[in-house]
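Posted in: Structural Biology > Protein-Ligand Complexes

Title: Requesting predicted complex, hypoxanthine in pocket

I'd be grateful if someone could produce the 3D structure tokens for the following input. Sequence and ligand are given below.
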Amino acid sequence: MSYEKAVEAAEFIKSKYNKEIKIAVVLGSGLGAFADEVENAVKIPYEEIPNFAQSTVEGHAGRLILGEVEGVSVAVQQGRFHYYEGYGIEQVVFPVRMLGLLGVKSLILTNAAGSVNTDFKQGSLMLIRDHINLMGINPLRGENDERFGVRFPDMTEVYSLEYQEIVIAEAKKMAQEKAVRREIETGKKQTINYFLRRGVYCGLSGPSYETPAEIRLLRLLGTDAVGMSTVPEAITARHTGMNVIGISCITNMAAGISGDVIHHEEVMEIGAKVAATFKELLRRVVLRIGF
Ligand code: HPA
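-- Reply #1 --
Done. Output follows.
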């Protein structure tokens, strides 16, 4: 991973958008809708950014969107690079390196994930409390450049506890407000539907989904949700000192739980169904941490 290449990409972005960027958001499979919240948006296709790889997977538009969410400057990565696409791991985390050089201090990583925890529901959200890296690779492997961070970075608190509290508080408020609205509309007492749970995300390389036996193993290891992204970016972000939030959209029950087969189309469809809730939660969190 060359520092100079990341500098070149960051300089290019600055030539297109010269404001201080506070927060970056990476939108996962089927979760691109938050990009609509960005005002005065400058949209840059990945192929225009020097040293960026190009996104290939369906559901990933592949562009960086710079602009404001109610006055907070953000960079939104609509589409990410996955290791399973065949990119080198340095290409997967290159955007994080570039965002770090642009001064971004807070990174919100989102993804679609399968639920290993049998209590979670399809279409709910999971706030990542911690992760397990079973991707078979670490993005920091190789010569360390001290300008990014130290050789052996601590990973005790990859996902900021302070930010986790903010996300939980905002999700609770949303659920309560919705129940009140429904109560007024229907005249009937409503139960509050807390759609956000907390759990451990396990990153695998993919692209095949897991076998039921693998899911049983992951459950024994303490996994709540499984996916094919996020872990490399989170490690890289911590290496460079960013505060990280991770949110998974539970698009399906993991293999062997319901007996249903898993389709990428279903993953995309559920992502689209929760888009409104997801977008609103992200907007609230951005406003809380951006000021
Ligand atoms: N497994 C791995 N990755 C995923 C899944 C899954 O079940 N659902 C969405 N991404």
